[in-house]
Design brief:
It is built from no helices and eleven strands. A hairpin with a 6-residue loop joins strand 4 and strand 5 (47-52). The protein is mainly beta.
Length: 116
């Protein structure tokens, strides 16, 4: 399984970014996998950000995000995205795409830096 994240970068506080994750090399239909975004800030543990379960589940989000992030998945294109708005310095982290079906698969991550 290969998960490739893209879309990270440097953004000013209050700005927006859209992260994408493209999946390939998996054995079963894409819509049977749960998909998640995690992030890890410097010196902190990796934390769950958002997720969509398999077969048409609704997105769920970490409470701390206060509705600023929106996750979606395209089962035809085998991609997931994370739209991030009103970014804050505390959103600075490496963002990881996660795919799960009995086993967890991880991408290498994409750096998001929120700074003026």
């Amino acid at each position: 399984v290969q998960l490739v994240e893209s879309g990270g970068g440097l953004v000013q506080p209050g700005g927006s970014l859209i992260l994408s994750c493209a999946a390939s090399g998996f054995a079963f239909a894409f819509d049977t996998y749960g998909m998640n975004w995690y992030r890890q800030a410097p010196g902190k543990e990796r934390e769950w950000v958002a997720g969509i379960s398999s077969r048409g589940g609704s997105p769920e989000y970490a409470d701390s995000l206060m509705g600023r992030f929106t996750m979606s998945r395209d089962d035809d294109k085998k991609t997931v995205s994370l739209q991030m708005k009103s970014l804050k310095s505390e959103d600075t982290a490496v963002y990881y795409c996660n795919m799960v079906r009995f086993t967890n698969y991880w991408g290498r991550g994409t750096q998001v830096t929120v700074s003026s």
